[in-house]
Amino acid sequence: MKILQVASGNFFSTYGGGQVYMKNIVDEMIRQQRSLIVFSFLDNSNGIEKKNYKGIDLYEIKNVERNELQQLIQAIRPDIIHAHSQKALMCTIGQALHIPVIITAHHGGIVCPAGALLNFKDEICNVSASHTNCLPCVLRNTRSGMYWYPFMKQLAMEQYISLGEKLKTKPFIPFITPIGQAALFINCKQKEWQNIVEGCTRMIAPCHAIKEAMMHNGLDEKKIIVIPHGIPLPVNAYSLSSIENGRIRFFYVGRICYVKGIHVLLQAFSRLAEDNVELHLIGGAGNKGEYRYMAQLQRKYKKDSRIIWHGKVEPEYVFNEIKDMHVSVAVSICMEIFGLNIAEALAMGKLVLATRCGGAEMQIEDGVNGWLVSPNNVKALKTKMEDIISNVSVIPSMGMAGRKSVISIEEHCKTLVNLYKRVNCEKEETSH
């Protein structure tokens, strides 16, 4: 069976969990000697460049037309397309070439025009996408957009979309262009999602929460299969580090950005009265907005010596970085589709304090291998951290429980390949 894996943007990027996960499954499938091709999408220049990655073909796709991409896929003749990005496009091409397309949902942006299933009130969104529901959220993500919302919501959707179409033909004007194109953006996102709904053969949901969100937005439940992510397990059998003098080291691993709730975490931690505690932040920013956000937080909390910023650490070094720490914190305020950082911490025998944001509930049993609190709740987070600090003696006995819930990348890839085979068999039965 020949498998085409469509990467989340640049295959070699480690910007987000989707990129890290994608590279993990490709490396493991190569190890399992699967027949594999990888597409990596880049924004610079134009054309298609074929490269070799660990003995397989990797195509770097740079701003090409759909027909050219379809011709390439037709020449490669994969038995299955597994799309982690360019999802609507791959569904369209898959339908045209009669190739089954499997999609993995990596973030709320698959259904959410604002990108994270986080509404303008900083609550996890549980309504279907529409112009009315999504406009305040999309404008909120645009600089000065919320000031314009009371006026822009007065426009009929058709008028607003028409305005966006006209602005496409004009030179970019800061603030005006993105605000004027908000309705057009929502409309395009809904059309993309409809292509996915109609064209995908199967949708992989890493957690039940994103499955429910996609069903709310019209995806047939029969097309969805819940498969939690797997991770490369640590080579060494780590255990919970000893807690010297009762000093607990909390730690966060991941992107430093707003939807991950770092501001909520720092606000809660800074209110702790105890001195025998540390918070280690391991990760970096990936764009201008995230750099501004990180810089603001570093300035605000620079006087708290208990907060240590480590910067970005490459995935292969994460296990070593956290081996001497105690409690992982994953405090996303948006819907988190899985949470590789949670799985990595559990695999190391660490405990995890997380928000109920979707992916965390798939991995953590409250009070057994960690703790769950409501998202975007400074008081609840601070109270739970105080409980952990005051009950430090119970932590070692909980430390080993989490490993049982972690799925290895080896088993995960076998599950994926079995799904590919099952879908291919269904295709052959239908064609007969």
From TrEMBL:
It holds the Pfam family Glycos_transf_1. InterPro entries: Glyco_trans_1 (IPR001296), Glyco_trans_4-like_N (IPR028098), Glycosyltransferase_grp1 (IPR050194). Residues 15-109 form the Glycosyltransferase subfamily 4-like N-terminal domain. CDD domains: GT4_PimA-like. Residues 244-391 form the Glycosyl transferase family domain. This is Glycosyltransferase family 4 protein.
